Amino acid sequence: MARTLGMASSAIYRYFPSRDDLLTALIIDAYDSLGETAEAALKASEGAPAGTRWTAVCEAIRGWALAHPHEYALIYGSPVPGYAAPATTVPAAARVGFALIDVVRDAHRTGELDVAPVPADLEPEAARMAADLVPDLPPAVAPACVAVWAQLLGLIGFEVFGQFTRIVEERDAFFRHTIAGLAHTVGLRPAGTS
């Protein structure tokens, strides 16, 4: 990176006291860039049915990841050995998840949400997660959102990291089909149903 800026690699430490400080800055920058992209898609789809908004946000996240594979790898790939992300990365990291939760929240408000109940043994964890993440939504929404978020990032990661080579050729159609299933998992009803 330093050479790209026309400076010696050691010069970067005039701006960052350590490797971990540099990594933290890069990670926050990547999370913020992705978060801005997801939030822009959320705002641009305002007023549309929940399923349409879900698709817009998911496609924006995928588009960013495909355009920024190195940044995606930094934030969602293998951990950097010896690096522990500080709490200062959490607000930026949460932006994508909260963009997706905003779609679910709006769906709940407009009656487009029908989340399945959780099994009895998951109820205490669902209540804890909901209190932390979505206190204004039914507790069953929280584990569904977390599961779908992990599946979405894994789906995108498989594409970014080349795991679909010679397996999935029609990736746009496959992605749209899969995120429709994820929307169903989180409780979003297709537009026009009651």
From TrEMBL:
Signal peptide range in chain numbering: none
HTH tetR-type domain span: 1-34
Pfam families reported for this sequence: TetR_C_33 (PF13305)
Keywords: DNA-binding, Transcription, Transcription regulation
Presence of the UniProt keyword DNA-binding in the record: yes
Name this protein carries in UniProt: TetR family transcriptional regulator
Organism per entry: Streptomyces griseorubens
